[in-house]
Design goal:
The complex is a heterodimer.
Chain A (H helix, E strand, L loop, with lengths): L1 H25 L3 H26 L3 H31 L13
Helix pairs in contact in A: 1-2, 2-3
Chain B lengths: L2 H19 L3 H21 L3 H26 L14 H19 L8 H7 L10 H10 L2 H22 L11 H17 L1
Helix pairs in contact in B: 1-2, 2-3
The chains are: A mainly alpha, B mainly alpha.
Chain lengths: ~100, ~200
């Protein structure tokens, strides 16, 4: 039973992570890309909690706590960057911000 | 694997599909809120009570409020699903398909790193509940006290950085402020470039 549950959640987080990666690749709106990164972080968190349960140890969940702290910091700085980009380009589409493309 | 896990798992995948393929950013954000709540449900079903509570408070509460606030503040809710840019869609689909196949192969019983092996390593899930706030807090504030303090420092640095990045310089009233001042600046830069 335990193995079945572990395997099911590993598959689920694999699907979630792939969806997040797909979103980062095909969307051009920076906020949506940002949200897809959050989706990938959550998939990894799900894997960590699954293994924490599998091994009966608490360290995986402690690591999830740190992932969440870093995600919160990333959200604050990332959204501030998006605001700054919007202020300079009046758009947050990746196709509009191409000054370095020459 | 119970029926509830299957049911909420399917819901989670549907909500995640909504995040990636919704045309409007706001719909994406609301789908992400649903996804985060469903992941919290999975955490609870896996016995990680503390992490489930954190998930609802930090992700669905704080981070998503911030994201939705920015979307509405900038008025960015126009549909822009298809992009003309970077990775071609078919290439992205192929890459993600291969990637997902590799992951599924890796965690399946016949894979290179079969999960079944771990049964002999750890003897399966334990009966005690290691996910209670008490257990997690004990480990977090003894064994991991130094990383815990570092996380606090990181959050402080992030707050200062966010304020620095998003802070708009105050200008004297006569010269206009905010976006209009930026427009003036941009247009003058363009004039310079043309000259």
């Amino acid at each position: 039973m335990a193995i079945e549950v572990t395997e099911f959640y590993l598959l689920l987080s694999a699907v979630l992570f792939t969806l997040g990666a797909l979103g980062v690749m095909i969307r051009s709106n920076t906020i949506v890309m940002f949200m897809c990164v959050e989706l990938m972080l959550n998939a990894v968190n799900l894997t960590l909690v699954t293994f924490s349960r599998q091994f009966g140890e608490v360290h995986g969940q402690v690591f999830v706590f740190f992932v969440m702290a870093v995600a919160a910091a990333e959200a604050a700085v990332g959204l501030a960057i998006i605001l700054a980009v919007f202020r300079n380009y009046f758009s947050i589409q990746t196709s509009d911000v191409h000054d370095l493309a020459g | 694997m119970t029926f509830a896990m299957m049911f909420f798992g399917l819901l989670t995948v549907v909500a995640a599909l909504g995040v990636v393929f919704a045309a409007k950013p706001l719909n994406s954000a609301l789908s992400l809120v649903a996804t985060l709540f469903l992941v919290a449900v999975h955490f609870a079903m896996l016995g990680a009570d503390f992490v489930a509570a954190l998930q609802v408070l930090i992700y669905a509460g704080a981070i998503m409020v911030l994201v939705i606030f920015v979307i509405m503040l900038l008025g960015l809710d126009e549909a822009s699903a298809v992009s003309k840019f970077k990775v071609p869609r078919y290439l992205a689909a192929v890459f993600c398909g291969v990637f997902l196949g590799l992951l599924v192969f890796a965690v399946s019983s016949e894979g290179i790193f079969p999960v079944g092996i771990m049964d002999s390593v750890a003897g399966g899930a334990s009966e005690s509940n290691p996910g209670s706030p008490r257990e997690v807090g004990m480990v977090l504030l003894t064994e991991f006290i130094f990383p815990f303090q570092l996380a606090a420092l990181l959050l402080l640095a992030a707050i200062v950085g966010a304020v620095l990045l998003a802070h708009e310089e105050k200008r004297p009233l006569g010269k206009g402020r905010g976006l209009s001042a930026m427009q003036q600046k941009n247009s003058s830069e363009e004039e310079l470039r043309e000259v």
